[in-house]
UniProtKB/TrEMBL annotation, chains A, B:
Top-rank lineage group of the source organism: Bacteria
Pfam families hit by this protein: HIGH_NTase1
Keywords on record: ATP-binding, Cytoplasm, Ligase, Nucleotide-binding, RNA-binding, Transferase, tRNA processing, tRNA-binding
InterPro entries: Rossmann-like_a/b/a_fold (IPR014729), tRNA(Met)_cyd_acetate_ligase (IPR008513)
Catalysed reactions, semicolon-separated: cytidine(34) in elongator tRNA(Met) + acetate + ATP = N(4)-acetylcytidine(34) in elongator tRNA(Met) + AMP + diphosphate
Name the UniProt record assigns to this protein: tRNA(Met) cytidine acetate ligase
Keyword RNA-binding found: yes
Gene3D superfamilies in UniProt: HUPs (3.40.50.620)
Length: 433, 433
C-alpha cells in the first residue's frame, strides 16, 4: 500500500477538489490518501465557513483515508510557515510516501530547482539557523530577506516583494512571472520545506487551470472556486445555490450545518468580539500580536475610527480603511485572526515553529485510515492525538480555543458545540452511513 | 454661594434620587450641586443601562449644576477605592464646601467616629503607606487586613468579612449589625477617604429608608430602586413601565435612547465579546486582570464549560456557575468588567490609585455650573478636562475605551456614537430646552 499526502482547506469541498484528489492518486500511483487540513481558521486569515468536523466528513466521503488537523499556529500563516507546518505533519506520520500539490506552472523541476537554490542560500548564510532571532519571521537566508525588505520599502506588498526577490535570486530563468502566481509560491514553499526538513516524500504537482475555471474536461457549469462558492452562500438561508458546483455529500453536509445554526461562519460573525478587543487594546499591546508589524498598531487605532456600523458590514469597512498597496487583504485578515485569537508573536516565534508540528491531531479516518493509524504507532515521530482532552501542548490549546471562538458564532451554540474538541471523537466514515 | 457634592450613578435617575438631591441641598444649606457620576461601567460591575451623556442630562434637568465623570479606574471598584476616587474628585475641585450621602443609619457621628478609628489604625501601622505593595488592594492597616483575611478563609464573602473585622476593631459599640448595610459601608468609606485625603469638605448624611421603599412622605406607588427599574425595562420595547417611578425628563430621555437603538445596555449585550475573550485567555494571563484573585482564573476556565447559550441567557448562566458563598455577584461582575475592558492589576495598582483622580472630566453643566468651572480655573488641584481629545492620561484612555465598548452594544452604532468622547462637548442645559 502506497500513500500520498495532500494539503487542503475544503472551504467548502467542491468539484475542483475532487478532480485534484483523483489526479493526486493517479500521478503518484497510490491507493490511500492522508489529508492535512486547516482547522477553524485558514491560510487567508478567515474563519472556515463550516466547522472542521463537517469539512473532515466531506474529505472522508470523497475518499480521503485520514484527515489530520494543521495546527492554527501554522494554518493562519504566510506561505512559508504554512507550507513548513503542513510538510512537517506529512513527514511526521512516517507513512506518507509522496505528496501532491496543484500549481499554475505544473512544472515540478522548475519549482524544485528554485527550492533547492533558495535552500542552498539559506545553508550558506545560516547553516544552523544560528542567526535567526524572534524578530526574523522567516527561515530564509539573510541576504534574501534583505532583498525582500528593500522591495517592501519601495512599497510592494509582501507577496510581490517575495516574488521579485526570488526571481532575482533564481536569475529569472523563466520569461514569465511564474513566481507571482499564488499556487506556484505555495508549491515552491512545500518543496523548500521538504529540503529544510530533509524530507523523504516524493513530490508531485498537477497543473491547475486558472483559478479552476475553464477546465476543458469539466465544464464551467460544474466548477467554481471556493471563494466564489462562499460568496454564493453568504447570507443565504439554504445551500441550494452551490448545488451545481459541489458533490452531493458536500451539499447535504452544508445543508445540515445550516439547519443546525452552525453555518455560515464568516468574519462578519466576529465583528463584535474583534471590535471590543481592538477598542480596549493600546497600540503597544497591539504590537505584541502576530502579524502586527511595521507600526500597523497605530494604523489599526486610526482606522477603527473610520468604521460606521450603521452604514454597512463593519469588518468590510475596517478592511477597506486598513488596505494599502503595501498590505494585502490576506495579510490584514491574518493579523485580525491573531488579534481575535490572542496569538502573540511570542507564542509563534520562529524557534517554536521551526520544530515542525509537535503532534498529529486526528480529525477523521476510514477503515484504510485506521490501518494507517495502527502503522503510525510505530512510525510517527510525534504523538498521535485522537482525544484532544488527553494531550497537552500550547499549540493544541490554541487549536481548541480557536474552535471555541469559531463555534461562538453559531446561532445558539450548545456547550457540546463550544467545546466540541473535548467531546468529539474523530469522524469515522463507517459511523456516518 | 455654597456648594454641596454628591456621588451618583443615576442608572436611571428616579424619584428616590430626586428626594436625596433635595434633602442634600436642604441639610447642607447650599445652593449649587456638583455630582460625581460613574461613566459607562458602574460600581456593581455592570454597564450603565444608558450612556453617560443621557444620565448627565437627567442630572442637570433635576437641578445638578456640574456633573463630573468618576474615572472607570475608580467607578468599578469595591467600596474603598470607589469612595476614595469620588471624594478625591470633589476635593480636587476646590469649590465644594460639603458633601452628602445616604445611609441606612443616618447617624453621622457613629460613622465618623468609626472612620477616624480605622484611619488611626492605618496611621499607627503604616504612616506613609510605606508597606503597601501592588499586592495589597486596600489602604487599610495591615492588622485590619489580616482580620479580614482570616474571616475570608472561614468562607465569608468580602463585604461580610469586612463588616465583621471592622465591627471587631470598633469594639461593636452598636448592638445592631450596622456595618453590614451597604450604604453604611459606602458612607464609612467616604468618611475614611476624607480622613486619608485630609479633606476640608463638611460631611452630611441623610437616612435612607430601606432600599428606598416604605418612605412615608412618598408613597410606594412612586418609589422603586434603580435595580427594580432596570428589571422593569429589561427586554422592553419602550419605557412605559417605569413611568410612575421616575421624573418626566428621565422617561423622555430613556424613551429617546430606546428609539435611537442606544438602550437598554446590559451584561447580556456583551456576552459575545466577553466569551471570546475568556475563551482565548490562558489562566495565567487571566490572573493578570483586576479582581481575578485567589485562583479565580481556574474557576472561570472551568465554569465557562458549563455555559449553554442554547438554554438561556449565557452571562446569567456564567454568573450562576461562578457564584459561591464566598464571592458576591458584585465581585464577579466587577471581575468580568475588568476582563472585558482589558484592565490589568498593574493598570490599577494602589500606587496609581492612591494619588486620587488625576483630572476632572466635565460631562455637563448649567449656567451656575459654568460659574463653578470658571472658579475652578483657580481652585482645582488637577486639570479640568472639557475636551477628552485634548488631554492624555492612562485613566482617561480607559474611560474613553470603556465608552466605546459600551456603545458597541448599540443596535447599529454610528462612529460618532462609538467615539463620542472625542466628538461630544459637555452637555449644557441651556442647549437642551
Amino acid at each position: 500500500m502506497k500513500t500520498v499526502g495532500i494539503i487542503v482547506e475544503y472551504n467548502p469541498l467542491h468539484n475542483g477538489h475532487v478532480y485534484h484528489f483523483e489526479q493526486s492518486k493517479l500521478v503518484s500511483g497510490t491507493d490511500t490518501v492522508v489529508a492535512v487540513m486547516s482547522g477553524s481558521f485558514l491560510q487567508r486569515g478567515e474563519p472556515a465557513i463550516v466547522c472542521k468536523w463537517a469539512r473532515t466528513e466531506m474529505a472522508l466521503r470523497m475518499g480521503a483515508d485520514l484527515v489530520l488537523e494543521l495546527p492554527v499556529a501554522y494554518s493562519t500563516q504566510p506561505a512559508e510557515w504554512f507550507a513548513y507546518g503542513a510538510i512537517s505533519a506529512l513527514e511526521a506520520t512516517g507513512v506518507v510516501d509522496a505528496f501532491c500539490f496543484g500549481s499554475e506552472s505544473g512544472d515540478l523541476e522548475l519549482l524544485r530547482s528554485a527550492a533547492r537554490r533558495l535552500h542552498e542560500a539559506d545553508n550558506r548564510e545560516a547553516p544552523d539557523h544560528a542567526d535567526m532571532t524572534a524578530g526574523s519571521l522567516t527561515g530564509l537566508a539573510p541576504s534574501f530577506q534583505d532583498a525582500i525588505r528593500s522591495r517592501l520599502k519601495s512599497g510592494l506588498s509582501y507577496p510581490s516583494a517575495y516574488a521579485a526577490a526570488a526571481g532575482r535570486l533564481l536569475a529569472e530563468e523563466s520569461e514569465e512571472d511564474w513566481l507571482a502566481k499564488p499556487n506556484n509560491t505555495l508549491g515552491l514553499h512545500y518543496l523548500l520545506a521538504l529540503e529544510r526538513l530533509h524530507g523523504t516524500m516524493r513530490p508531485y504537482t498537477i497543473q491547475r487551470q486558472k483559478a479552476d475555471y475553464n477546465q476543458t474536461d469539466i465544464s464551467d457549469e460544474r466548477i467554481a472556486s471556493a471563494t466564489a462558492l462562499r460568496k454564493l452562500l453568504s447570507g443565504e438561508a439554504d445551500t441550494e445555490a452551490v448545488r451545481p458546483f459541489v458533490p452531493a455529500y458536500t451539499r447535504r453536509i452544508l445543508q445540515r450545518e445550516w439547519e443546525a445554526g452552525r453555518a455560515p461562519v464568516s468574519w462578519a460573525s466576529f465583528y463584535a468580539p474583534l471590535f471590543a478587543r481592538l477598542a480596549v487594546t493600546s497600540p503597544s499591546e497591539m504590537a505584541e500580536f502576530g502579524e502586527v508589524t511595521e507600526g500597523l498598531e497605530h494604523r489599526i487605532a486610526r482606522c477603527l475610527h473610520e468604521v460606521q456600523p450603521s452604514a454597512g458590514e463593519p469588518f468590510e469597512q475596517l478592511m477597506q480603511a486598513l488596505k494599502t498597496k503595501r498590505y494585502t487583504r490576506t495579510k490584514l485578515q491574518r493579523m485580525m485572526t491573531r488579534i481575535l485569537l490572542n496569538h502573540r508573536k511570542i507564542d509563534l516565534s520562529p524557534d517554536l515553529l521551526r520544530g515542525g508540528v509537535p503532534y498529529l491531531r486526528v480529525l477523521g479516518f476510514t477503515a484504510a485510515g485506521q490501518a494507517l493509524l495502527k502503522a503510525m504507532r510505530k512510525t510517527a515521530s510525534v504523538p498521535v492525538v485522537t482525544k484532544a482532552a488527553s494531550f497537552r501542548h500550547p499549540f493544541l490549546d490554541m487549536d481548541i480555543r480557536s474552535a471555541t471562538v469559531h463555534a461562538s458564532a453559531y446561532r445558539q451554540p450548545s456547550k457540546a458545540e463550544l467545546f466540541r474538541d473535548y467531546y468529539e471523537p474523530p469522524v469515522r466514515l463507517a459511523d456516518e452511513v
